[in-house]
Amino acid sequence: LSLSLSLSLSNHLPNSKHQIQPANHTRPPICAHQSTLKNGRQTDSTPRVHGSSLSSASLPPPLPTITNLPLPQLLTQFIAALYYNERHHDLQKFSPNDKIPELKQDQPPEVDTLDPEQFKAGQLELARDLITKEQQIEYLISTLPGLDNSERDQLQMIRELEEELGAAEQQRQEALRERDEVLKRLDGLVRLIRRH
Hints:
Radius of gyration: 31 Å
Number of domains: 2
Strand content: under 5%
Number of strands: 2
Structural class: mainly alpha
Strand order of the largest sheet: 1-2
Helix content: 40-55%
Order of helices and strands: HHEEHHH
Largest sheet: 2 strands, antiparallel
Number of helices: 5
C-alpha cells in the first residue's frame, strides 16, 4: 500500500533525481510504532569486540561507499508506513449483510481509526518521505565512479594515472637535485664571504 502510494504521488512531486533535501518541516511521529522503530531499534549502539566496548574515537571514519547507503532508513520508513495504514484505517463493510463486531470492554481495539482527512494527510506525508529517501539513494548511486565505463576503460585509466604519477615522481626527484645543488652553491658563497 505504501509503495502504491509512492508511485501514485511521484507524478505530483518534482521529478528530479538530485532532489535529496527533504521538506523543511518538523513533525512528531505519526504513530508510536514509528518512533519506536527510529529510537528504540538498538538500545546499545556501542560496538563490542570480544566483550570489550569500542569508543567512537577508536573507530575509523565511515567510507563513502555504497555499503553505507541509507537502505536501513528506507526499510524502516516502509515498515512505519505499513503499520500506519494497518493501524489507522477505517473499517468498511463489503456487503450490506456484514456486521462490524463489537469489542468487549477488556478487549483492545484492532485499529485506531483516524479522521479521514488526517489519515489521508498521513499517507501523503509518508509517501513523500519514501520518495525523498529513494531519490537520496538514487543520487548516491549516480555519483559512484565507473558506472559509465567498462572494465577495459577503467584499466586504461589506471595505466594513464600510473604514468602521470611516474612523471610527477621524476619531476620531484629533479626538483630535489636542483635544491641540493643550489644549497651547495649557497654554502660555498657563504664560506667565501666569511674568509674575506
